[in-house]
Amino acid sequence: MADAASRLKSLVEQLLGVPLPVRIRAWDGSTAGPPDAPALVVRNRRAVRRLLWKPGELGLARAWVAGDLEIEGDLYVALDLMSTLVWERGEDARSLVQMLRDPRARAAVRGLVKVAGVPLPPAPPREEVRRSRTRLHTRWSDRRAISHHYDVGNDFYEIVLGPSMVYSCAYWEDGGTLESAQRDKLELVCRKLGLTSGQRLLDVGCGWGSMAIHAAREYGVSVVGITLSQEQASYARKRVADAGLTDLVEIRVQDYRDVADGPYDAISSIGMAEHVGSERYLEYAEDLYRLLKPGGRLLNHQIARRPQRDESAYDLDEFIDAYVFPDGELAPLGTTVTQLERAGFEVRDVESIREHYALTLRRWVADLEADWRRGLALAGPGRARVWRLYMAACAVAFERNRIGVNQVLAVRTPESGESGLPLRARTWGTG
């Protein structure tokens, strides 16, 4: 086909009813669109077939993961330009049937079918996880989901996360490094929890052990860290041993629902609650409440989505669910606070650090891109492309306030009403 790019651009704009904000570079070498904009490189006709059979975010993701689509130019600028189409207009393009209700859209689809060739649905990339809608957040399904995301390989995560090996939002100041920003985040959590020597801390979703090591080394607390990832646990145990902290830190492969050796003086849950699920969240909050002693504190660090007018219509992010965090769910901040209070907690402080996560994600992407060849060798091309796209897209989502991240400090306030918190907010300590 001569000048496939112009044909694609015209048909897609006819289908969507708006101009494309990016250039198109097609498999025949032709280009069309704004000359100074990043280019969406359509490497083959299969990419078009993927989008026809699954319009919107998931079709784009499948084509990206398979290598059928690429971005030429600034990835963040391209994602920002395309975000309105993917996040807003894409809601109306969930299925081919919906598009075919409009006569102009039907004509555009017929044209795209001619461009794409034989209209058979391509198989999804092997990295895609098929989601079971019937039994979510059982112990088995949660282990499977956590293994998919975290057992990519510790060497791969070392590339992305750097020496801190902390896989959650850092706490930045101007001119700081990723390592110092992650140390500052761990220190902030410890201060909010009011940790003192001799206390017991439960770190739920302990990852590669960074929070447990920091709390034990800097505050002299006894820490139990739990994770469902075997690879994380092995790595964390070695770090604990290398730090000479085996007398203070225990790393377990354990579900939070199975922890039975409370009470603890404090609980940290950093970037874990997104995996719990809306149906299980109250149970999660009640379990943590049960594990705390009266006066104990919980620091819940969690990503939140913006609330919708009709919450019953909320659906999971298709790309994230299929390729990144299977069965993961984001809740509005108000929902999280309500569930913690229903479990018995007194919520004492909420701090939004949304912009900090955008900065963190951009640094992770830069780290991966800087060692891209090794990342490909360690994780495979498809998985490496998943991580690059999801981290860059999430950075844009945080920057545009589509999602946020919050630290919620809650207390199991005793019957006396003495919370143990300082009179002046955010001085922390023990009051």
From TrEMBL:
Keywords in alphabetical order: Lipid metabolism, Methyltransferase, S-adenosyl-L-methionine, Transferase
**Organism listed in the record:** Streptomyces cylindrosporus
Q: Which InterPro entries does the UniProt record give?
A: CFA/CMAS, CMAS, MeTfrase_dom, SAM-dependent_MTases_sf
Q: Does the keyword Lyase apply?
A: no
Quote the protein name from its UniProt record.
Cyclopropane-fatty-acyl-phospholipid synthase family protein
SUPFAM superfamilies with a match to the protein in the record: S-adenosyl-L-methionine-dependent methyltransferases
Q: Is the keyword Transport assigned to this protein?
A: no
> What's the short name of a Pfam family annotated to this entry?
CMAS
Q: Which family does it belong to?
A: Belongs to the CFA/CMAS family.
Give start and end of each Polyketide synthase-like methyltransferase domain. Answer: 156-388
**Gene3D superfamilies for the chain:** Vaccinia Virus protein VP39 (3.40.50.150)
Q: Which domain of life is it from?
A: Bacteria
